[in-house]
Design a protein that fits this description.
It is built from twelve helices and 15 strands. It is of the alpha/beta class and 331 residues long. It folds into two domains: 150 residues, Alpha-Beta Complex (Quinone Oxidoreductase, Chain A, domain 1), CATH 3.90.180; 147 residues, Rossmann fold (3-Layer(aba) Sandwich), CATH 3.40.50. Helix 8 links the parallel strand 11 and strand 12. Helix 3 packs across helix 11 and helix 10 packs across helix 11. It is globular.
Length: 331
């Protein structure tokens, strides 16, 4: 097997593509031949030693992947050799093979494309948990999606639209706004224009007839957080997803008081750990939504696994719309 090995987490340049022995699965594990793996923002942070989870060295990055089970360890009965699966393990995906805990592998129903599967779990589970579980989104409400052209943003647009909401997609360029509109957004807000001119709140007020959005989906943080929260509707819900912009904003607590609004934390990984049955039910719902055509990952590009550094460079430059996927040549 080959894998991108991180022996010193000082950045992407320290990763090396190495030949390694193909491991045998232990109790509770399966050996997965990886067809495709997607690049997520935590995959960048983890090789820079900036992520909250710090795996022991050396490690293979790549949190999310899909492939075929090639061997099963003792006591594994829920998966069989030859079965297609998707998996989110935190590490191991940027390789030709990896060991994965069987309990973290999701059997894929017939018709679920492996490239799509590699780009599906993290973004759609995060967005579904955020909007429907934590945000209690109802049909007819208005959702503002910040970072709307990214992986979680594009998933959020599709999930909110399927739930019957009106979606305002905010993104940092005209091209990203156009993508958001193509996948179902009802209106767009180019915040590279409106932030520079100071008209972000005015434009949001115009797009909501003065009412403000009922739900704000924010994976960005940074300077947009406060003006977005100031614009929220009465009884609105502000969903804190992440901080892709870098800075973690400090928000005045009088703002939710004045609007009867809620600031709601969203941590899908911890939800999956603490409430596994509810998470499994959600994942089944999402898989059905994919097969029925309601949800389809937006894939910016598919690159060979050996071109991982180029994929990281695109992500670092904030050029990605949707998800980047790395594929192994054997698939």
């Amino acid at each position: 097997m080959h894998a991108w090995l991180c022996e010193n987490p000082v950045g992407v340049d320290a990763l090396t593509w190495k030949a390694l022995p193909t491991p045998a699965p232990g109790p509770g594990e399966v050996l997965v031949e990886i067809a495709a793996a997607s690049l997520n923002f935590p995959d960048l942070l983890i090789v820079q030693n900036k992520y909250q989870f710090k795996p022991p060295l050396p490690f293979v990055p790549g949190s999310e992947f899909a492939g075929i089970v090639r061997a099963v360890g003792p006591d594994v009965t829920q998966l069989q050799v030859g079965q297609p699966i998707a998996c989110l393990t935190g590490t191991g995906g940027f390789a030709t093979h990896t060991l994965a805990p069987a309990e973290r592998c999701i059997p894929l129903p017939p018709g679920f494309d492996l490239t799509d599967a590699a780009a599906f779990i993290m973004t759609y589970a995060t967005s579904h948990h955020a909007l429907l579980d934590r945000g209690a989104l109802r049909a007819g409400e208005t959702v503002l999606v910040l970072g709307a052209a990214g992986g979680v943003g594009t998933a959020a647009i599709q999930i909110a639209k399927h739930a019957g909401a009106r979606v305002i997609a905010a993104a940092s360029s005209a091209a990203k706004c156009a993508l958001a509109q193509r996948i179902g957004a009802d209106a767009t807000l180019d915040y590279s224009v409106h932030t520079a001119s100071g008209s972000f709140r005015d434009e949001l007020k115009r797009l909501t007839d003065g009412r403000g959005p009922d739900v704000i989906y924010d994976p960005v943080g940074g300077e947009l957080a406060e003006p977005a929260l100031r614009s929220i509707a009465w009884r609105g819900r502000y969903l804190v997803i992440g901080f892709a912009a870098g800075p973690i904003p400090s928000l005045p607590l009088n703002l939710p008081l004045l609007k009867g609004a809620s600031i709601v934390g969203v941590f899908w990984g911890e939800f999956a750990r603490r409430e596994p049955q509810a998470n499994a039910a959600m994942l089944r719902t999402l898989a059905q939504g994919y097969l029925q055509g309601h949800y389809r990952p937006v894939i910016d590009a598919v690159l060979p696994m050996t071109e991982l550094p180029q994929a990281y460079a695109r992500m670092a430059a904030r050029q990605v719309m949707g998800k980047l996927v790395l594929r192994n040549d054997t698939h």
